[in-house]
Write a structure and sequence with these properties.
It is a single chain. The model has no long low-confidence stretch (mean pLDDT 91). The protein is mainly alpha-helical. The protein has 5 helices and no strands. It has one domain (2-94).
């Protein structure tokens, strides 16, 4: 299903925001990598932006229920961890 969403996004059939919300709904908070590892960088950035704006008691959507708090927070932690690892690798390679 994630691959289908990515393909639709790349073909212009859906927006990055729609991919973000659909993937968050699919996400198992205990194993976020099962969904997130396949997403393009720009979708991960959009998802992180969404997570930073996410306020559970105020979130409304005309497209159904917003993702659950644990799904959003799990995605945020995973993406931030991946970003830290990339930064650390880049810093380490700079000094080699």
């Amino acid at each position: 299903m994630v691959d289908e969403l990515i393909e639709m996004y790349q073909n212009g059939a859906i927006t990055g925001y729609q991919v973000t919300i659909d993937c968050l709904h699919m996400l198992d908070p205990d194993q976020p990598d099962l969904v997130l590892i396949r997403l393009p960088e720009e979708i991960l950035e959009e998802m992180l932006d969404y997570a930073h704006r996410y306020v559970p008691s105020c979130m409304r959507s005309n497209k159904g229920l917003p993702p659950a708090v644990d799904q959003v927070k799990s995605a945020q932690r995973w993406i931030e961890k991946i970003q830290r690892q990339k930064t650390e690798r880049n810093t380490a390679s700079f000094f080699e």
